[in-house]
């Protein structure tokens, strides 16, 4: 940041004046989310209460920021997702909102969902369960329903929907298991399971469970081959297997 002295105040306030990494994260999120009646002081009080209720939230902060640097070729420094990337900020906001939801502070959790949606262009219900090492690339357009579950070490691109199939209540959203890669624009609908180690190709509509370590593509999605590696969420390889495009058809 030495090449941009005009940003010195941002770095000082967001990082150098903070007592530790968790404090820096809470302060940075509050700076980005504060607006009108939702003041920084109110947000910081709520965030600190959430972190005190579940100190393991900080493990998610750390694992997620490492995942960004490991998996995003456009990112070379930890400071980049911390200060600028809305995908990382959206997930950390959700972690805090989820804790508030579990602690019975439902209206504040929903307020955070709404404000995060306005700021980061994602809509994640505060009841949804997220593991650690989650990488959300670009972020814009992500929708995650109330009963969705994302396990550890998952990568998602923009415009992904983890949604329901109608007005049914109860468990109605997808479960994305460890190490899966979900391509841009994929729509995964219903209380179905994806993975572990599976790939969902960009633009696919998934209505049935996805077997471990397979790649599905198409509308509706079907198996077109293996996952290409043991860790598709980390390799981020989104090419279909040879002949994959010829092995499915779009149903209009």
TrEMBL record:
<dbReference type="InterPro" id="IPR042122">
    <property type="entry name" value="Ser_AcTrfase_N_sf"/>
</dbReference>
<dbReference type="InterPro" id="IPR018357">
    <property type="entry name" value="Hexapep_transf_CS"/>
</dbReference>
<dbReference type="GO" id="GO:0009001">
    <property type="term" value="F:serine O-acetyltransferase activity"/>
</dbReference>
<keyword id="KW-0808">Transferase</keyword>
<keyword id="KW-0677">Repeat</keyword>
<comment type="pathway">
    <text>Amino-acid biosynthesis; L-cysteine biosynthesis; L-cysteine from L-serine: step 1/2.</text>
</comment>
<feature type="domain" description="Serine acetyltransferase N-terminal">
    <location>
        <begin position="1"/>
        <end position="93"/>
    </location>
</feature>
<protein>
    <recommendedName>
        <fullName>Serine acetyltransferase</fullName>
        <ecNumber>2.3.1.30</ecNumber>
    </recommendedName>
</protein>
<dbReference type="InterPro" id="IPR045304">
    <property type="entry name" value="LbH_SAT"/>
</dbReference>
<dbReference type="GO" id="GO:0005737">
    <property type="term" value="C:cytoplasm"/>
</dbReference>
<comment type="similarity">
    <text>Belongs to the transferase hexapeptide repeat family.</text>
</comment>
<keyword id="KW-0012">Acyltransferase</keyword>
<dbReference type="InterPro" id="IPR011004">
    <property type="entry name" value="Trimer_LpxA-like_sf"/>
</dbReference>
<dbReference type="InterPro" id="IPR010493">
    <property type="entry name" value="Ser_AcTrfase_N"/>
</dbReference>
<dbReference type="GO" id="GO:0006535">
    <property type="term" value="P:cysteine biosynthetic process from serine"/>
</dbReference>
<dbReference type="Pfam" id="PF06426">
    <property type="entry name" value="SATase_N"/>
</dbReference>
<keyword id="KW-0028">Amino-acid biosynthesis</keyword>
